[in-house]
From TrEMBL:
Coiled coil: none
Residues in LysR substrate-binding domain copies: 5-134
Lineage: Bacteria, Pseudomonadati, Pseudomonadota, Alphaproteobacteria, Hyphomicrobiales
Record-given protein name: LysR substrate-binding domain-containing protein
Organism listed in the record: Roseibium polysiphoniae
InterPro entries hit by this protein: HTH-type_LysR_regulators, LysR_subst-bd
UniProt record, GO biological process: regulation of DNA-templated transcription
GO CC, any one term: cytosol
Top-rank taxon, per record: Bacteria
Length: 145
């Protein structure tokens, strides 16, 4: 059984003062002239990034590939490039000097869910933690996105 926590969009995370701050949304095609920071191929987020580039007919040529969202954000914050990450990366910002804009044309979302066995009753711990997890995640990610 699935319990949706939130809908997650792909975003571009940029250093303060980056030209993309002038836009409310950034089309995928505008990333072609940027030094793109992506997660490594082992990440399903990387697959979404590749789909975004392919959908506008542009090959993905990462400037840097990293394993952790925190690393991608640190690199973007310090001007090494723009990081393509999902909305939930906002949870890792913690006062960093980074802005983010939704990626569009196309824009796509994924559902972040809690998965449980359909034929089993949730344990008391699971029943208690699930609503708490939903609330915390929703508080950490901006609703406007």
């Amino acid at each position: 059984m699935l319990g949706n926590i939130l809908s997650d969009r792909m975003m571009v995370f940029i250093e303060d003062g980056h030209v993309f701050q002038a836009f409310e949304e950034v089309p995928w095609k505008m990333l072609t002239e940027q030094r793109v920071i992506t997660l490594s191929r082992e990440s399903n987020i990387r697959v979404l990034t590749e789909i975004g580039f392919e959908s506008v007919g542009v090959p993905l040529r990462p400037h840097l590939e990293v394993h952790q969202i925190h690393t991608a954000l640190s690199l973007a914050e310090n001007g090494a490039g723009v990081a393509v990450l999902p909305t939930y990366a906002f949870t890792a910002l913690n006062g960093r000097h980074i802005a983010a804009r939704p990626l569009t044309s196309p824009d796509f979302t994924r559902q972040v869910s809690i998965v449980s066995a359909r034929e089993r009753t949730a344990s008391p711990a699971t029943a208690a933690v699930s609503p708490l997890l939903r609330r915390i995640v929703r508080e950490m990610v901006p609703e406007a996105l």
